[in-house]
Every structure is written in structure tokens, then in C-alpha cells.
Amino acid sequence: MPLQPGSRLGSFEILALLGAGGMGEVYRARDTSLKREVAIKVLPASWSRDPERLRRFEVEAQSAAALSHPNIVSIFHVGEHDGSPYIVTELLQGETLRERLRRGAMKLREVLDAGVGIARGLSAAHSAGVIHRDLKPENLFLTRDGRVKILDFGLAKLKQAPLATAQSATVTLQQVSSPGHVLGTVGYMSPEQVRGEAVDARSDIFALGVVLYEMVTGKRAFQKATSAEIMTAILNEDPPALSQITPDSHPGLQRIINRCLEKRPDLRFQDASDLAFALESLSDLSGQATPAIHATVARRRWLVGIPLVLAVLVSAGLFVWSRLSSGIPVVERVTQLTDDGEPKPSLTKLVTDGTRIYFNEGASGSLKIAQVAVTGGPTAVFSTRFENTQIAGLSREGSTLLALIGGFADLRSSVWLIPLPTGEPRRLDSIEAQDADFLPDGRIIFAHGGDLSVVGSDGVNPRKLFSVDGVPLYPGVSPDGERVVFTGFSSPGVSTVYEARSDGSGLKKLLEAPGVDLCCGQWTPDGRYLILRRRDENGSIFDLWALPAKSSFGRHAQEAIRLTNGPLDYSSAVPSRDGQQIFAVGTKRRGELVRYDAQTQQFVPFLSGISAIDPTFSRDGSWVAYTAYPDHTLWRSHTDGSKRLQLTYPPLRVTYPFISPDGKQVAFGTPQGEIFVISMDGGSPRRIAEKYLTSATWSPDGSRLAMTSWRERYKSDLQIFDVRTGQLSVVPSSEGMLGGQWISEDMLVAAPSATTKLMVFDFKTQKWSDLLSAPVVNWATSPDFRYLYYTTGGTEPTAMRLRLLDHKVETIASLKALIRVTDWLDWNTQVSVAPDGSAVFTRDIGNQEIYALSVKWP
């Protein structure tokens, strides 16, 4: 029976029963020795006769007593009374998280503060070898002074220690639970707990993701009628997106929770401290509203001579009307249309004739055209005689595809007309373009350099419409053919959406938001909205937005309306012919680092198959630096995976890292065209160059960096940064060259923009010469500078290497069966060289499929 007020447990005087929770009764008591109030948890005598419950209670005492952290309840004493063990803890004033959630969802600031505290507490527990295994709102306490405390390590499991010493007891996994024995609370278990498998710290991270979801929405992530259905949902389903329940939820928090709730442990945050940092990075933004995108529209002028009183009445009426007419488009349902597992690059286009959807599949340099019914089903490849075909548009009647034919990095491609359903492709005279689309009357609008021009279907006598300060891409023509929108890229990371009349007049900036990527406007069939994709500077996922295309009476600006808020990255959006749906590529980005094992002739996981791209190795082979995918943060570790350290943090995003020859620094680029250098031991990155520069590679002696510069629209050249003097110089005759990499102290290999060959610049003779003729997609030098590795495109993509001593070419492996990551920042797949000489790639284990988003329009 419960202890009575006034009774004693040793030096503790019982004051009151607080309640029965977890595996025992909790009392308020007074420590007569130290003159303080405490809480005492007692295991009832009936439970103490249960060996399993008694063992779990003892584990709780061992686990919690070993921890000392502000976000974990403190343990003062462990004892036994009349055969019943008890634990004495600090007395907390406040309420459990469950009690708080009964009043509804929490504010963003509350969620972030509590989430950071819980993650920090878990990190401390995990560092001490303790896994909680039963994290839920009932075991989290919100104190009156604003702190959060983790309670009840009754289901905790002590991890197997690597070595046991006389001073440190080792508790094995079998001492606590056996595989196949499910412990935890239904609804907060990780998938591996549901399956009864061995668990680790990442199970706690999954549970915290479930708790965070409930804090934001006020609803359980996996809410079903029965325990069996809940477990099935945990194994196979994703909870509804936050935006479906809480429309103003922060997109960054959605991405954090999604990562916590990954079904596979290796895809979650690997350390609770990383999760705490991610939540902290949102804390500074929690008081800010999601930035709106504003469209510049023509201001209306009131007619002269209207009496003042009428103007006031009209203004008041318009104000009231604007408040009442607040209907916005809403995505009501998302349906997956394809399920073929093939990569669908996000920088390509979808087009539809109302019956079928045509889209690109494949890796960079090997794009093919595929098709699927608008209702979903099997996909089919549309055969052409080209090895790399990129869709540009579809004629209004659906009889002809417009395609760009060229290499993966060709700055301009030939334009072709491909008849549907069959017929002989025809080149559009000598027209070359970086993008194009059809006008309703069959003419073709195309972008060449900084110009947008129009030409008839015969390709003869093109006429320039206008020029912009930048590179125009993704033209979209209004249904009536009167207007065209396109995205202008004036510098890396800076984009502007333009609108103009299709006759070339009325050019104006429609959308411009510094630090925000905007792209790819497409009109709805009624011409009322533009569908765009957007990524803000703090996220790595693109969402779809709808911009009202026509200004409302009396309004000076329109705001774009968010249609999606994760968890998928949406791109290549195009409205259906009836306007009721939006077709788009939905991407869940995940990668697996692999190397080609020549003995087994297999691609095998490298660095435990982490989700990373662009690994770069020190010359002695002991260190590796890489970019986490899709986060684009920079990490380093030993090549055996030990001593892992994060070097950069959001919002800084990293591209093309390269370790210096002495292994002490890493040079890397950013999407904004800046070059940084950071110590391999961490610290603040140092910017050494800016303005349209990418991929800085070290010379063998570490004194120079070779970089690709994009100083003028689509015109590139190579530049050299002298580390000692800080001076930049242009490599002679390097116009149009890309991706300079050193092969010796005096030689630099690069490719012309057409990438049909590799060339070498000799600094002694100051001349270029041919090195290799091949349809090259990527290339990389080995850390010892003995070999040049490269990949080819086309229908038979292959990994090759060139021995620089005698120019002997060797085939490494076919890449046809390897689905490689095509990254939205790096723009293409990559190849790296491990210290043992094996080629390293990133296998795409994510998901890229076509989805139909059903939209309710106002």
C-alpha cells in the first residue's frame, strides 16, 4: 500500500503522494539531513517480486545516477525499504509535456527551446553510454523556470563498452534485453524497436522527432485505432506534413523532423548534438515570419476630379473587400504517378499533352526521354537516336517535342524537333540555345547567351526580342501567347524572374529576392497564376509557390503563396491541361558513398556508406573531407571513419571541396561564387576570393589554387590564386575552359565547355595541347597525381583512368547500372579517387518520382 505522510525512508520524510507513473509511485519528501524537498520513486512490493520489473528498475537507477546534466533529472540517492527499492531525485515544479500538450500545440519558440534542451540531455546520456528507449511526453518535464528535464530511464539500455576496466562495469546488451523483445511505448518507438531489433542512440532521435511533431501540431505523428496499426504505420508510413496541419509551420523545422523520422537509422541525425545544433540554428529565426515574395505590378492612378468623399468610400470598400476575398490556392492531395526508381534530374522539364507526361530520366550526359500516363502507371522510354536528349517544350497540339541535344555541360545545344508519337527528328537549322519553348502559334522562343529570340519552325531568320543582364533560362509562355516569363541568372546564387510581352516589349522584373533561389515559372491554363519553385537561404529543399499573374484592383503588389512545405523537394513543375493538378518531380534526397572494388567487381559502401558527395583525400591517404548530402555542410574524418568533425554550418553551403597537399586545409566553393579555405581542425572559414568563382583545386606544392571563373554570362575562363601574395591571374587562352585540375606543378588539365575532350595547359610554354578525346562528364586526379580518372556519358557510361606518365587509358567499370546522385548545386554527378586507387561515387538511394498535386483554386 502507498506510504503515508509522516512516514520515513531513512533520512527522508514522506510529505505527500504525487502520483503513480512509469514503474512506481512518486512521493514528495523532505531530506532531513540536507534540509531540502525531493521526489522519491518507489517500486511497489508487488512489482518487486517481478524479476523483470525489478531488473528494469535497477537499470534505471544505474543509468540515471551516472548522468549529470541540466536537462536530465538529478539522482540524489538509491535505497531499499521493506524489500522495495527506491530512487531519490530532485523535486521538479511545473508539468509534464503531456499535460502541456493537452492544451494544444505549442508556439515555435517553445518547441525550439524544449527541443534543444531535450537533444542536449540525450547527447549527454548517449555520451555516457545510456540509451533512453522510452522517450515520450510523459517522460519529459517542463519546469516553471522554462527548462526541460528528461525523466524515467526505466527502459534505458547501457551500450556495450568497448573495453571493460576494474573501474568501469560493462553491461552487455543481453543483460538488458534480447533481440526480438520489444520495449518502449507504442507510437514513440523507432522502426527498429517495433521489429524487436537491437537499438542505439538513433532510436532516441526518432522518438524525439515524434515528440517534436506532436509539439508543433498538437497531434500524434502515428495516430491509428490499434497498436498493431500504429506499429505498421511506423514501419511503412510518413506522418502528414506539418503544413497540412499547421500552415504557418517553419519549413526548416519540417526538414529537421523529417530527418529524425527516417525509417533507416543511418539516414537520421547520427548524434543528438547535431540535432540540437540544427534546432538552435532555427532559434534565431523563430520570431521572423516566412519571407514573402513580392511581385512588382503597375501602380494604378485614381482618376482626376473624383470627389474626395467618393475616393474615401471606394478606398474603404476596397479595404473591406480585400479582407473578405482572402481565398488562396491549396494543395488538397498528392498522388505518386511513377515508381520506376530511375533518377529524374531536377534541372530538366516536364511537359504534358493532357494524356501523357514526358520527362527526362538518367544521369548527366546520358539523359533519355520517358513518359507516363497522367493517371500514373508504368513508365516507358521514348526512343531517339541521341545519347543525351533534354526536353525543352511541347507544341500546343501535342504533336512535337522540342529538345536540346548536346553534352552534359554544353553551354549551348542544338535545337531539335521530335515528332510524336513517331517520326524522324529534324534540327532547327543552325539554332543553338541554352533553353527554348514553343509559342502557341508554333514559333519557338529560345535563349542564346544573354538574348531571348524568336524563330519560326523552319529555324530561318531568328529575331532578337531583348537582352538581359544575365543568362535567361526556363522560358514559359502564357496560354494566350501574349506574355513570356523566364529566370535570369546574373551571378551564382542570384536569380530574377522577368516578364515581357512576346513581341519583345514591356520587359520588367517580376520577382527579385536577394539570397532566395527562384526559378522556372509556368502559367496555369487560365493564365491566373504562375507556378514557381523557391528555396530560401536557410534550406536545401525547393517548394512550389503560386504567384497571382494578374494584379487585383487597387493593389500595388501581390504575394506568392506557398503550395508545398516539404517533405519532398519539388521541381520541374507544370500544370495539367485542365489546371486541376500540378505535375512535378518529387525528390527525397539520399546518397550512399561507394567505391568500385576491382577484385569483386562490385560497388561497395565506403566510409560506412554515408550520405555524402565530393570526397577529397589528403596526399598521405589518412584524411578525407566531404560534403554531407543533401545538407551541403563540410566534414572531415580519418579514412577509417574515426575522428569525424563538422567544419561548416548552415546557412553556408559547400561545393567542390579539395584538401591541400599538406593535409592541413580545405578549399571549397559556394553557390554564390565565393572561394573559402578552412583548417582541417575546424574554426572560421576564410574567404580568399569572390565573384563568380568555383572549384578551387590545389597545386602539388600548395602555393596556388586553380579556379573556374564565370565573369560574363555563360563565358568561363580559368584563374590562378597565389596563396602567398593573394593575387588573381587569368590562365592565358583559357576562354571557355572548365574544371581546371593540376596534374603536375606546371600543368593544368581542363575541358572546353563542349566537354568532348580534355586539354592540358603548360605553364612553361604557355600553350594548350590536347590530352584526351572522349565525351567526358567528370574528371579527377588521384592524390598522388599519377592518374587522371574520368567518366563518360551516353548510353554506355563508363569510368576510365588515364596514366599520366604514358597516357595509357584503362577501363575501370561500367556505370550503366549505378544510379548516381545528380546534385542540384554541383549540377552533375561526381567521381573521386580513394587512397587505394579505387574510384569513388555517390549512389542515389533516394527517391525521384513524378507526382500529381491536386489543387483547389479560389
Write the topology of this structure.
Elements: E1 8-9, E2 12-21, E3 24-31, E4 36-42, H1 45-48, H2 51-65, E5 75-81, E6 84-90, E7 94-96, H3 97-101, H4 108-127, E8 130-131, E9 140-143, E10 148-150, E11 157-158, H5 173-176, H6 191-194, H7 201-217, H8 227-236, H9 242-245, H10 251-260, H11 272-283, E12 294-296, H12 308-324, E13 330-336, E14 351-352, E15 356-361, E16 368-373, E17 380-382, E18 389-394, E19 400-405, E20 413-419, E21 426-433, E22 435-438, E23 444-448, E24 451-455, E25 463-467, E26 471-477, E27 483-491, E28 494-501, E29 508-512, E30 517-523, E31 529-535, E32 543-548, E33 557-559, E34 561-562, E35 569-575, E36 581-588, E37 591-597, E38 602-605, E39 612-617, E40 623-628, E41 634-638, E42 645-646, E43 655-659, E44 665-669, E45 675-679, E46 686-689, E47 693-698, E48 704-712, E49 715-722, E50 728-730, E51 737-744, E52 747-752, E53 757-762, E54 767-773, E55 776-781, E56 787-792, E57 798-803, E58 808-814, E59 832-833, E60 839-844, E61 847-856
Antiparallel strand pairs: 1-2, 2-3, 3-4, 4-6, 5-6, 7-9, 8-11, 9-10, 12-33, 13-61, 14-15, 15-16, 16-17, 18-19, 19-20, 20-21, 22-23, 23-24, 24-25, 26-27, 27-28, 28-29, 30-31, 31-32, 32-34, 35-36, 36-61, 37-38, 37-60, 39-40, 40-41, 41-42, 43-44, 44-45, 45-46, 47-48, 48-49, 49-50, 51-52, 52-53, ...
Helix pairs in contact: 4-7, 4-11, 7-10, 10-11
Write out key terms for the chains shown.
four-stranded antiparallel beta sheet, mainly beta, Phosphorylase Kinase, domain 1, Transferase(Phosphotransferase), domain 1, 858 residues
